[in-house]
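Before relying on records like the one below, remember that each one covers exactly one chain. Contacts with other chains, cofactors or solvent are not represented anywhere in the record.
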Amino acid sequence: MEHTGQGGAVRRRRRPAVSCITCRKRKIRCDRKAPCGNCLKSKGSSCSYRDPPLSPPKATTPRSATSLPNDCVDDENAELDVASCFSITTPPTPPSLVNTTNLGIAGTFHIHHESRQGQPNVGAFSIAHKTRYFGQSHWVNSITLVRDLFAILEPHFRNNSSPIVGCMLECKGLAKTLKSRVLPCWPYEPLFDVPPDHDDLLRNYISTSESIFRVMHIPSFTRDFHALCTSPTPPTNAAFIVQAKLVCAIGATNTDTVLRQEATQWVQDAQTWLSKPDFKHQLSLQHLQSHILLLLARKAVGVAEDMIWISVGSLLRTAMYMGLHRDGVIGTSPNTNLFTSEMRRRIWNTILELSVQSSLNSGGPPLISLQDFDTKPPSNLNDEDLHLDQAIPKADGVFTSTAISLALRKTLPVRLAIVKFLNDWSSPGDYPTALKLDSDFRAAYTLLAKFLSHVSHSSNAPLTNVNREAVVNHINLLLRRYLLALHLPFFLPSLSRPEFAFSRVVVVDTAHRIWRGVFSTSDIGASNVAKSSACFRTVSMQVIIVLSTHLRAQAADPISGGLVREDLVAILEEAKQWTWRCIEGRETNVKGYLFACFVKANVDAMREGLTEPEVVKMSLEAAEEAIRKAREVLKERLRSLTNMEPSCGPATVLGNQGETVDICDGNNEWEQPQQTFDFFGGSDDLQGGTGMMLADGDNWFLDFGNGLLV
């Protein structure tokens, strides 16, 4: 584009210089490298750029010279420069080092290391496996810490010198049979068989989930829920039936009653109903509430919880389409009553929370920034106050039914920054930025911790219906996961490079606090972990990997003389007991228990100073004993169900390669068609998430991570 200045002189818009200063003076073509080829040939020349060098130009398709403005063509190189035409600054793609690793029993992993702003490669930036891409905050990136352990197992699996492969195949078939007999069929009719303990389920939901993630107006929902459960006539409000089922499903994860099958059915029923092609009716607050409850229930019950990040994207855009991200527009205008305005703000606040948390869990970018909305946080009001248009919000620190979610909201900016730092491909990924985020996070966490301390000891009336210990534990787990994810990329180099020693201390200390706070042998820890899913299982996997790596490094350090922290060794022993309790509590994925036993034996052998062959032998023996023990539990459970008809489908399953494995009679004759056992081969059904660890499609290790609980 040309502009005419004073006196009619034609001037051209200044474009950024893409050649180095020396090449511009010599008027020769520059390859834009640092240093460029011309300056390398002229050894006496120094190569420098007035502007940062751009990425090497890509081949372009010839175009007509008259079809583009003159300013889009570089005088020196006569190449298309679209960015300068529209004043767009496109950050250069950082060079990527891809390390392809075939772990044999685990499959092929493509580990990406990004070189960012001259920073050294310190850890995996992302991992690609089959059809999945896991960003830096996804727990599976910690697999790089235990690659040597898989190297120990691989030769024995390939040579069939260990019975682990056969036992694992047998356990996998047993698990599929058990699931086929207890999981409900899909789809369902929109009916609601009122559970006998419905009051307890509602109370559990209100005292835990609703205290943190504000979704419903509790007084009105409680009234309608009791009317639904006590009505002598069949209810007709399908939308409210769906919400009641989801509330019961979430509440079931915090009760001693085993309701996994019922909770799974309620979640799938809601998923079916919300999937109907009635698009205009989806643009309502009630639909948003149902969608949020569905995501919370999927996370709690373990129904494809690893895919929540995808569903949150649809939820976020629906809310933005309805204008919830803007204050002063639809639903928040001066003529809107207080109830509608505050409910919109509460729902938007919860959607933001789900967006950030799902981004951390999945390793995907949050796809939302603080500049994308101007909706204010909800007011600090009790639910009973929303019917009063002149209600005055309480001051900060005054306890209301919304106070906990507001306190958590104050930490959202730094948590969002951490997730962007970890998962955005254009993030610098440098250690100074990580330390700055650590400092900001600790400042925000300190304020939240003071508030939670008041929650634990306050006698304020609005908190009488809150399960304070469960809420505080849940928030502490949620927040500490960000700190763990922030420093985990620097954990492996910290074992040998002192400049990252702070990250090693933070990772080990955070893992220790997470386990003691949530995964202890207390009733609350056992209930939340053994009967729910998602982050509990994921973090438990990270804790076991991190602490075992730290202990093995300590045992191998000649300076320490083989001395290790006994409290961390005790956690590995507790992990064995806890994963075993999960199997006894109707869990079907045995890989978590197998891995915990294998790692514990490996650490113990190294502490005793055994030779490498002795360490391998001791580790394998522990794994073999664990898998045999778990197999017997699954067999006994199947025998107890022999008189029950499977609730869905035939009593046969397909092996990894499609071969049919007969499992109807529960005998010991098992077909093993594979020559090589794929440890990551897993179920790809909707209920994979109910496995012993994370259920990520076809991966046993991902299944294992979700299934450790998941």
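The mean pLDDT is 75.
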